[in-house]
Amino acid sequence: MSAMLSKALTARGYRVFVAANGNDARALFGEVRPDLIILDLILPDADGLSLTTSFGRLTGAPIVICSARHGQLDRVLGLKLGAADFVPKPFELDELEARVEAVLRRSRASDQAPAGDEIGRWRQSHRVKSRAHRTERSDDALADD
User: What CA dihedral angle connects 58, 64, 65 and 70, to 10 degrees?
Assistant: First the structure.
């Protein structure tokens, strides 16, 4: 499955690295910094759910779980453990690609968002301007009476 998926995503312009198991993935993360991880829950050396949090922390990359194990508990746990999306097998390649694109868009948007302190400063200045604007309108309305 990973060879077919790798070939299809490469043909669509993605640079793909494949790891057959959790240990190979950890080693690969020492060599490359992925923009996104597609993770199966069924691996020969580890449970994919247990790797979700550690891979996210290790790489900072969003994770899309793509697995035949797709009961509600697996889906909910995967998302609560940090996966950005969950795609149950079998799937259509077009849907997986659309989900990958959406996750990458969200990831890039959050990378470009202002830091927390900047957001707080913006909100504070926005509130002040809004109050001042409302006050000016009140004064104008009173002057017209």
Answer: 150
Domain that holds residue 124: 114-145
**Count of domains in the chain?**
2
Instruction: Give the start-end residues of each E strand in 2-141.
Output: 37-39, 63-67, 85-88
Q: Are residues 119 and 94 in the same domain?
A: no
Q: What is the CA radius of gyration of the chain?
A: 22
Hunting for tokens 């079998």 — which residue is that?
90
Q: Which tokens go with 84? A: 């950005």
- Whether this prediction's pTM lies above 0.85 is answered by no
62 and 8, same structural domain? yes
In three-state secondary structure terms, 109 is helix
Q: Is the peptide bond before 90 cis (omega within 30 degrees of 0)?
A: yes
CA count, 13 A, side-chain hemisphere, 99: 19
Same domain, 65 and 127: no
Residues 104 and 123 in one domain: no
Same domain, 122 and 62: no
Q: What is the pLDDT of residues 25-73, one digit of tens each?
A: 999 999 999 999 999 999 999 999 999 999 999 999 999 999 999 899 9
φ, ψ of residue 42 to 5 degrees: the values are: -100, 100
